[in-house]
Amino acid sequence: MSIVLREIRFSYGEKKILDRISLTVREKEHIGILGGSGSGKSTLLKILAGLYPVKEGYCEVAGEHAPEGIRKRVAVVMQTPGLFPLSIRENITCGHSMTEEKVWEAVRAAQLEEWVRGLTDGLDSLVGERGGNISGGQAQRIAIARAIAKDAPVVLLDEPTSALDGETADALLRAMERLTEGKTVIHVTHREETIQNYDRILVLKGGKLFEKES
Amino acid sequence: MRKSLSRVFGRLGGAMTYCFLLLLRCPVDTVLCIINALFLRHVFQTIEGGDERGLWMTCALFGVANLCLFLYNGTLWGRFAVFSAKLVGKLKQFLFESMLKLPMERIEEKSTGAWLTRLNGDVTMTLNLLTGALNLPHLVFATVRVAVTAVLFGKISLLLLAVELAVLVPHMFLRQRFVVRPMERLTKEAQDTMEHATVYLETTVECADTIRLYEAEDLLLMRYRESSLSVVKARLCSNVRKTLGELLQMLLSRGGYLLLFCFGCEMISTGKLDFGTLTEALQYRSGMLMGSMMWLNSYAEVRKNSVGLKRMEEIYGTEE
């Protein structure tokens, strides 16, 4: 199994967010999780990404259960791209040694090649503070390129298209196809149309996870 | 800068009070120098003449004059402090209001670090310019001090004044060329680099999850270290220049002193001067030297801080 969650509970102080969540995901399976605002879907994703420690229950991702180990096995694309005020290259490699070809491969897969080649400094162009020098769609695609370059077996998506307009969101979804190809995917969203082709769709409500009724 | 100043006072008010307080304060340093000079002259003259009563009288007058000057100066600085505090409040409020009215594209064209620097650094720079030590007030005080003491020095002996000028002018030139100007550049460099370092610090908070997920700690640490090192480097270079300035002062200030003594002794031996008058001249010389140093330091600070004033104008505009 790629992901195993057993009896996961999580709360912020007194407020219960996740209540006895159990989930098993097979390798290369694509799971969509639907949930409204405040349903705990981002919290669940952060647990799966190894960003929050599991205090109650058991979480295993790609054979790892320690948060540090989990973080090495997942690639995450969030609502905000989380770009560093550095160059496109550094935002993709995150300072790790990577061949030029691999960087371009990620750029190509994220459908950024044409744009990057058109820039005076190419991959060394600065994105600015919070990606201020580039558009929201380009910023999110750099985040996707970064996730592609990481080449992790599990991909977690937290509404990566929520802040984008329809056309840009569609282009981004196409870019994400390459990212999710042959990987285990968990995509949390409140828009069902973005996950309608997934293997399974679950609903997170009141801190509990249900199979979606067809 | 004059236009920028009149614009800022035009918006905040208080220009007349500011000028009035400056005018009242500017003779203090000069008067103190004259009191010291006259005291030393009379003390040595009374000692030479064996006039014990005159000596006591001189000391008493010196004490009273210093006390009066102290009270006058204290009262004025008290007023000035109240004026400064009010000005700080007005300026910050005015700047905040102006920022709220800025169009979005103007706000977005600068990084958060740059805006924070502007709100904190540039306001502080402007306030320092108007009210801080070794800034605009001291520039005025130093001008008065140098002019008056030079005239009094020249009245005692034009030869001694010429000797002093022969040392003082190169001293000030070298100081300006090799100390003050490079230090201005280094300070600006340090400030710019500090802005970058602030941006990296913000990123570590805002992108904490991404940094952990993609193990980018080393990358950001390296970049932060680079900008911190640049700040340290600029500060180190600045300290080297400062030391050079101190060295110049030791060399040329003491050298000038010795020269004046040599010429003074010669004049005493030929009966053109008495020792009391020489000590008075040395006091005026000290006033000239201190005044010149203060003038140059204040001028450098005024130039540096006027950058803050000009940058603030980008927020509230230059139209009256």
Core attributes:
heterodimer, A: 214 residues, alpha/beta, Rossmann fold, six-stranded mixed β-sheet, three-stranded antiparallel β-sheet, 7 helices, 31% helix, globular, B: 320 residues, mainly alpha, ABC transporter transmembrane region fold, 91% helix
Structural features, described:
The complex is a heterodimer of chains A (214) and B (320). Chain A is globular. By secondary structure, chain A is an alpha/beta fold. Helix content of chain A is 31%, strand content 27%. The model of chain A has no long low-confidence stretch (mean pLDDT 87). In chain A, the strands form two sheets. Chain A has a six-stranded mixed β-sheet with strand order 5-6-7-3-8-9, sandwiched between helices. In chain A, strands 2-1-4 form a three-stranded antiparallel β-sheet, covered by helices on one side. Chain A has helices at residues 41-48, 67-73, 88-93, 100-109, 113-118, 136-150, 166-180, and strands at 3-12, 15-25, 30-34, 56-61, 74-77, 154-158, 184-189, 200-205, 208-211. In chain A, strand 6 (154-158), helix 7 (166-180) and strand 7 (184-189) form a beta-alpha-beta unit. Chain B has one domain (2-319): ABC transporter type 1, transmembrane domain (ABC transporter transmembrane region fold), CATH 1.20.1560.10. In chain B, helix 2 runs antiparallel to helix 4. Chain B has eleven helices and no strands. Chain B is elongated and about 90 Å long. Chain A binds chain B through residues 46, 49-51, 71-72, 74-76, 78, 82-86, 90, 94-96, 128-130, 132, 146, 150, and chain B through 108, 111-113, 199-200, 202-203, 206-207, 209-210, 212-216, 218-220, 222-223.
